[in-house]
Structures are given as structure tokens and as C-alpha cells.
Specification:
By secondary structure, this protein is mainly alpha-helical. The chain contains four helices and no strands. GO terms for molecular function: protein phosphatase regulator activity.
Length: about 55
């Protein structure tokens, strides 16, 4: 799997978190645990948490 393929789920999440539709944002927030488990601790810290702050 290429690096861009690895980043695709994060890009989708970021787009959903920026969505003007509140329901879409809430649905993406509910998937944060699943995405962080898939990313692993290091990538969650370096990629996901930096976006959420």
C-alpha cells in the first residue's frame, strides 16, 4: 500500500470534520476510535491529534 493510500482515510475524516452539515461531523467524530485503532498509536499522535487540536 502506498503512502497516499495510507493517508486516504485521514483525508476523508478531515473533509468530514470540516463539513458544514452537523450530522456529517458527528458521524465522523463517532469513527475517531476506529480510525485511531487502524492508524496505531504513533500515527494517531503525529497525524490525527495534530489535526484535531
Amino acid at each position: 500500500m502506498s503512502n497516499s493510500d495510507d493517508l486516504y482515510p485521514i483525508a476523508v475524516l478531515i473533509d468530514e470534520l470540516k463539513n458544514e452539515d452537523v450530522q456529517a461531523r458527528l458521524e465522523s467524530i463517532s469513527r475517531l476510535t476506529t480510525i485511531s485503532l487502524a492508524l496505531g498509536p504513533e500515527r494517531t499522535r503525529s497525524e490525527l491529534l495534530s489535526f484535531l487540536q
